[in-house]
């Protein structure tokens, strides 16, 4: 069952000492492809370096690149970083721009000045995505209505993935209507994540993709079980598949085939 990890931060320092070993293990459990996601310009070099490592190593997943400026780090972003992002899009084969979006989880980010800056950088990156004909990988936290409004105002038509989805059923349907897939993380393995379970059951398997979001969003079994307790890495993607298969009451093989198709579609790889 080939699996596609559509959202990883496999370039971060957590993985510097054993990245190749983990990549080999991920391939062994069926992870055939993964996306390396950008979040701050200061790490673009490491992002590209990790991508090149994965392309050079044998028996590891296929690597794809998606650079972007994450809304949570809005205080760090400067206008020159948008120029750096464009240079990466020009000079390297990137499948998407991400992760980008809006985040008002922190009280500080709700302040008009910072939220306006988030919106400015989001719009600028949507314009780059349109210019370079790339889908986008969206980070949306407590800002679904505002994010949807901007995408509609920009008439953005290239779709992508609403990553680590945390909204409700109606919000999920709105994203699907705009041509986005819904990204499901290890949260699906938590029986108490009732809203996410409702979402995946309501919108249907054809609108879903899976991700580890490593090193974040660790599947429940990897947090609590002594047997499986571990950092979150691409090796854990089969746990996400299993959790989703249980939520949808579908065979894993059938689900994996549909998810691979969805991932390829969302990233314009077909």
Helical residues, percent: 40-55%
Spatial gap, N to C terminus? 18 Å
Helical/strand content category: alpha/beta
Order of helices and strands: EHEHEHEHHEHEHEHEHHH
Unreliable segments (pLDDT under 50, ≥5 consecutive)? none
Mean pLDDT: 94
Number of helices: 11
How can the largest sheet be summarized?
5 strands, parallel
Count of extended strands: 8
Radius of gyration: 17 Å
Strand order, main sheet: write it out: 4-5-6-7-8
Question: How much strand?
Answer: 15-25%
Shape: globular
Keywords, separated by commas or semicolons:
3-stranded parallel sheet; single chain; 5-stranded parallel sheet; about 270 residues; alpha/beta
Brief characterization of the structure:
Helix content is 45%, strand content 16%.
Note the topology:
Blueprint: E1 3-8, H1 19-28, E2 31-37, H2 44-56, E3 62-66, H3 79-91, E4 97-103, H4 107-110, H5 112-131, E5 136-141, H6 144-153, E6 160-162, H7 169-177, E7 180-184, H8 194-203, E8 208-210, H9 220-224, H10 237-248, H11 252-266
Parallel strand pairs: 1-2, 2-3, 4-5, 5-6, 6-7, 7-8
Notes on the structure:
There is one protein chain. With 270 residues, this protein is an alpha/beta fold. It contains 11 helices and 8 strands. It has helices spanning 19-28, 44-56, 79-91, 107-110, 112-131, 144-153, 169-177, 194-203, 220-224, 237-248, 252-266, and strands at residues 3-8, 31-37, 62-66, 97-103, 136-141, 160-162, 180-184, 208-210. The chain has a 5-stranded parallel beta sheet with strand order 4-5-6-7-8. It has a 3-stranded parallel beta sheet with strand order 1-2-3, with helices on both faces. The protein is globular and about 45 Å long. The two termini are 18 Å apart.
């Amino acid at each position: 069952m080939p699996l596609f990890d559509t959202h990883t931060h496999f370039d971060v320092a957590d993985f510097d000492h054993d990245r190749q070993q983990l990549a080999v293990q991920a391939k062994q459990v069926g992870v055939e492809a993964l996306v390396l996601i950008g979040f701050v310009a200061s790490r673009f070099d490491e992002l590209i370096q990790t991508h090149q490592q994965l392309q050079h190593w044998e028996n590891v997943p296929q690597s794809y690149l998606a650079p972007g400026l994450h809304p949570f780090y809005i205080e760090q972003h400067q206008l020159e970083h948008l120029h750096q992002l464009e240079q990466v899009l020009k000079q390297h084969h990137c499948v998407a721009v991400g992760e980008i979006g809006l985040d008002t989880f922190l009280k500080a980010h709700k302040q008009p000045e910072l939220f306006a800056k988030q919106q400015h950088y989001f719009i600028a990156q949507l314009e780059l995505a349109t210019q370079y004909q790339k889908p986008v990988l969206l980070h949306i936290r407590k800002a679904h209505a505002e994010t949807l409004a901007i995408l509609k105002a920009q008439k953005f038509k290239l779709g992508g993935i609403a990553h680590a989805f945390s909204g409700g059923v109606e919000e999920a349907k709105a994203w699907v209507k705009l041509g986005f897939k819904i990204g499901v993380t290890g949260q699906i393995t938590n029986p108490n994540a009732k809203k996410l379970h409702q979402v995946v059951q309501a919108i249907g398997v054809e609108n879903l993709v899976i991700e580890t979001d490593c090193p974040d969003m660790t599947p429940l079994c990897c947090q609590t079980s002594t047997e499986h307790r571990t950092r979150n890495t691409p090796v854990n993607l089969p746990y996400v598949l299993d959790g989703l298969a249980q939520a949808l009451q579908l065979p894993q093989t059938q689900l994996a085939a549909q998810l691979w198709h969805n991932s390829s579609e969302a990233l314009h790889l077909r």
